[in-house]
Amino acid sequence: MRITVFGATGGTGSRLLEQACAAGHQVTAVVRDPARLTFSHPELSVVRSDVMDPAAIQPHVAGRDAVVSAIGARSTKAPITVQTDSTTSILKAMADAGVRRFVVVSNSGMLTDGDGPVSKYVVKPILWRFLKHPWTDMGRMEDVVRASELDWTIIRPPMLTNGPRTAGYRTAVNRNVRGGNRISRADLADCVLRHLADRDSIRTAISVAN
Fold first, then answer.
1. What is the pLDDT of residues 179-191, one digit of tens each?
2. Are 171 and 207 contacting, i.e. CB atoms less than 8 angstroms apart?
């Protein structure tokens, strides 16, 4: 597949590049600062562009089979709109270029469907106090994605770790994985790649956890 990745210099994005290239995909990484990307591969092209400018990124999504956003927020102390704004820009660029397949990484922490009572009524209300701003941004981002007419899939992981790729994770459709409170970034990247060509996951949210 020909894949464009946004958020490629982050923990999940970098693993996504490595796994996609190893699988033989032709990958374009759209980044703000190419110097932050240390991975190189014959199948990888790196371009500098502003994700917030749909016209600027359109040439880098045109002709692709799929586009992935693994953009994450770095600050939790103030209201942010980075994921909502970047996703809005990417979706416009894709629509203008006639590209349909979009997979975006969100999170399962802001939701409680499928959770047990301890997580639902004790753990997550506490986490909301500390993660209110990024979770609010992610929720708005998901609203933007759901309103799109493109072939989207939302991937929702819980807490991320730097553990190895195991491919032993669990998934759930439109609800959280019961008892799933963490997953490695490597397994998250594996899940994203597996769903790129999965037509059954179009217009669904897939929660993933070990």
1. 999 999 999 999 9
2. yes
